[in-house]
Amino acid sequence: MHWRVLTLVLFHAAVAIAAGPPEPFGPVPSERQLRWHEMEYYGFIHFTLNTFTDREWGYGDEDPEIFNPSEFDAMQWADVASKAGMQALIITAKHHDGFCLWPSKYTEHSVKNSPWKNGQGDVLAELAAACKARGLRMGVYLSPWDRNHPAYGKPEYIEYYRQQMHELLTNYGEICEVWFDGANGGDGYYGGARETRHIDRSTYYDWPNTWSIVRQLQPMAIMFSDGGPDVRWVGNENGAGSATNWATLRRDEFAPGIADNSALGGGQRDGTDWVPAEVDVSIRPGWFYHAKEDQRVKSVEKLLEIYYSSVGNGCNLLLNIPPDRRGRFHEIDCQRLLDLTTALDAAFAHDLARDKTATASNVRGNAAQFGADKLIDGDRNSYWAADDDVRSCEVTVELGEKLPVRHVRLQEYIQLGQRIEAFTVEARVDGIWQEIAKGTTIGPRRILRTSDVTTDAVRVSITASRACPTLSTLEVY
Ligand code: FUL
C-alpha cells in the first residue's frame, strides 16, 4: 500500500476509534431501572382496616368485619391516576396490621372474612384489572412487619411472608415495583400474645433469599427499600429530593430499616451500585384517609414544590392518595391532582428547543453520532458526548427568536453512568449572556426553574465532570 493511502486509512481508523461511545463511568442502571426512571410519577394507595378505624398503624387485633367500603371503585382510582399523568399505582396489599386486601390462602386475616362482597372480594384483582384498562402499571407494598401474625419474630413467619409474596407476584399480572417498608418490630397483637417483639433487622428477614424470589417471579419488578436493592428511599416523607443527587450508593451499608437517612437524599458520589431515590409523600398529612384531614389536602403550590424537588432533582415521585371509607379517592384529592397536572401541562406544553439549532464547544470525534443536535431531537436515547479528555464545555441552543423561558430540563445519558457535577445555565439577552440557573448533578433528570427571562439562546456550561460529559436532553420551556 502506498504510504499516502496507508496514512489515510490509519487516520480514518483513529477517528473511528475516537468516535466510539465513551466507556461507561462507575455504576450504570439496569434495564429495569431505566424503565423505572421513565415512570417519573405514580400513585401510592394506603387502604386497609385503618381506613375504618381512623388510625395510621393498626395493632393487628382489628376485626375483618369492619372492612366494608360502601362504593368500592378501583376503576375510579385508575381513571383519576391516568388523567393525572401517573404511570402506575402501588397499593398496600398488607400494611403493618397484617390485614390482607386479597384473599390469601395463608391467613384468615383478610378480605375473605369481611362483609365486603360477602367475603368474595379481592382488591388486588380489581386494581389489576383497572390498571390494565387504563394502561397503568401496578406495584405492591407487602409490609415485612406484621402485628397480627402469631409467628412474627420466628422463622415460620418468613415462610409465611414469602408465600404471600408468591401469591402477589403470580396472580395479578405484571408487577412493576415491590415496596419493602423499613418499619419493623415493636408491640402488636401477634395472634393474641399482645407483646413487644424485636427482630434483628439485618438478619431476621434473610433479604437476599426473598429478593431472589421477586427476581425469579417478576424479573422486571423494581425492589424498593431504604437502601435498594434497586431503588432507595429518599430519607424523608415530606416530598423533598436533594439538589445534589447521586444515583449511586454503597449499597452493602444499607438494609430495609437500617439506613443513614442523611445519606439517602444525596446518595453517595462513590457509590458501588446504581440505586436511585424515590420520593414517597402523601397528599394529606396521614398515609390513610381521615375525614378530619379533608381540609388539609396539600395545595397545588405545595404539590408543585414537591414535584420540582423530587422529579426535578432526578427522583421519581410516589404520591399517596388514600381512598376513603367508600373505597373512592375523595373529591378534594381528585381535584387537587388534576389541578397539579393542569399546572404542569401548562408549564411544559411546548419545548422551545425542539429541532432548533444546537452547537457544542466539543463533539466527540467530531462525529455526527454524538452531535449537539442529539440534545434537541426529542429522543432521550440519542446523546451528545464530548471527547475523553474533556471535563468542561458548553452546549448552546439557538431559539431562532426571542422567547420567554422559565424552565430548562436536562438529562445525562445515564446508560453510561452519572458524570456531571457542576453546571450553569445562561440566557442571551440583547447579545449578552446572563446566568439564569446553576446546579451540581444532573443524572437521570434535572428540571431547573430559571429566573424569568426573554431570550433567543440558552447555553449550558458544564464546569465539572468526573469523566467526559454526555447529555441526552436539553429542553427549554
Ligand atoms: C412508613 C409506614 O410506617 C407508614 O405507615 C407508611 O406506610 C409509609 C409509606 O412508610 O414506614
How would you characterize this protein structure?
Helices cover 23% and strands 25% of the residues. By secondary structure, the protein is α/β, with parallel strands linked by helices. The protein has 2 domains: 31-347, TIM Barrel (Alpha-Beta Barrel); 357-476, Sandwich (Jelly Rolls), CATH 2.60.120.260. Helix 4 packs parallel to helix 5 and helix 6 (155-171) packs parallel to helix 7. It is globular, with a radius of gyration of 25 Å.
Quick tags:
Jelly Rolls, eight-stranded parallel β-barrel, 477 residues, alpha/beta, 2 domains, six-stranded antiparallel sheet, binds beta-L-fucopyranose, 20 strands, single chain, TIM Barrel
In short:
With 477 residues, the protein is an alpha/beta fold. It has helices at residues 3-18, 31-39, 50-53, 74-83, 123-134, 155-171, 207-217, 261-264, 300-310, 331-347, and strands at residues 41-45, 88-94, 137-142, 175-179, 186-188, 195-197, 222-225, 231-233, 248-249, 273-274, 277-282, 316-320, 357-360, 384-385, 393-411, 420-429, 432-439, 446-465, 470-471, 473-476.
